[in-house]
Amino acid sequence: MRVVEAFRETFQAEPEGVWHAPGRVNLIGEHTDYNDGFVLPFAVPWGVTAAVSPRQDDVVRLRSLQADGVVTLGTLDEAEGWARYVAGVFWALREAGHPVRGADLVVDGDVPQGAGLSSSAALEVAVCVALNDLYGLALDGMGVALAARRAENDFVGMPCGIMDQAASALAQEGRALFMDCRSLATRNVPFDPAAHGLRLLIINTGVRHALADGQYARRRQECENAAKRLGVASLRDVTDLAGALGRLDGDERRRVQHVVTENHRVEALIGLLRAGAVREIGALLNASHLSLRDQFQVSCPELDVAVEASVRGGARGARMTGGGFGGSVITLVPEERVEAVRDSVTAAYAERGWAAPETYPATPSAGARRLA
Ligand code: GAF
């Protein structure tokens, strides 16, 4: 494993172990996690592999095969850029009272760039499962996800929900992960499009619009404001949508419309999967995309064009996946239409002078685990 060779070369020692944590795509349930709602992500075959040894002191030495040099952190506050995601995990575990000292780490990531497939959650979770094992913390998968989310919320400063870290920590091969983000109950739901003559493709727009982080925090705030105005703890608790919409206007009204209907779409999609009606989930994917575009307003032209062109090319349905403002589209395509869908998207992009986006098969993969 090249991460082990790099560890030997960097620290002149064998790593104590090697761990892997994947990125994710979300099948449906977008911008619902921080509203105590439902999500249905699954792990992708790409992620972060970490070779790690514990230390007797509190120093963290860190090398990424995707960046130059070795970062040495005497204190966690010294971390900058990508190293903050790693330092944040040490911080979150120590804050929770776990006896975590320093470590030497080499990390190697292969999540496609710009794809919005949660490479940062993969990095956090890979480090967290390593420290969990090395320091005997006995956290379960959700415990790992919660510590990783705390690192991102309170150390990195990104107010994300629990979906990405939970998917990375708890996903299983061949299954999607249904999660109730209020109770944190999870269920691994079999999802095998190939058994139905279908392919789920990821279309990576390769763009990430600069407003993404600021708009994410704003959406979250709008949802909290709307919940307060409606007198509910969170938008999960809206049971009378028509009544709620009648009491709101403008952006808050749109946000509520999205979140409430999106939760129902997650439940409907689970129902179809349970009935073996995988071919029928396309309409829910399309409806989710329109809602994210028009009500939640987190799409962008590159995502919309990829969705529309893939449906024109014969996809059963398509939607943006993840936070939005760039990243990827997922599209559910009958096997015999895969080439036609790729051609349709490439042509639509070319018409606008955009480079052809990369596409990859999205195979539901295993969650975080120790490799060696
Ligand atoms: C990002 C966040 F990190 C998730 O928590 C989730 O809110 C998602 O956007 C939108 O569904 O990936």
From TrEMBL:
User: Domain of life of the organism in this record?
Assistant: Bacteria
Positions with a binding annotation for ATP: S64, G114, A115, G116, L117, S118, S119, S120
The terms describing its cellular component in GO are: cytosol
Q: Where is this site: Transition state stabilizer?
A: R24
Give its localization: Cytoplasm
Enumerate the spans annotated as GHMP kinase N-terminal domain.
85-170
The alphabetized UniProt keywords are: ATP-binding, Carbohydrate metabolism, Cytoplasm, Galactose metabolism, Kinase, Magnesium, Metal-binding, Nucleotide-binding, Transferase
Q: Which reaction does it catalyse?
A: alpha-D-galactose + ATP = alpha-D-galactose 1-phosphate + ADP + H(+)
The organism is Streptosporangium saharense
Residue span(s) of domain GHMP kinase C-terminal: 270-350
Annotated GO MF terms? ATP binding; galactokinase activity; magnesium ion binding
Gene that encodes the chain:
galK
**Which positions fall inside the Galactokinase N-terminal domain?**
5-54
Its name, as the record gives it, is: Galactokinase
Enzyme Commission number(s) of this protein: 2.7.1.6
Q: Where is the active site?
A: D164 (proton acceptor)
InterPro entries, per this entry? Galactokinase, Galactokinase_bac, Galactokinase_CS, GalKase_N, GHMP_kinase_C_dom, GHMP_kinase_C_sf, GHMP_kinase_N_dom, GHMP_knse_ATP-bd_CS
Positions bound to Mg(2+): S120, E152
**GO BP annotations listed:** galactose metabolic process
Q: Where does substrate bind?
A: E30, H31, T32, D33, Y216
Protein family membership: Belongs to the GHMP kinase family. GalK subfamily.
The pathway to which it is assigned is: Carbohydrate metabolism; galactose metabolism
Q: What class of enzyme is it?
A: transferase
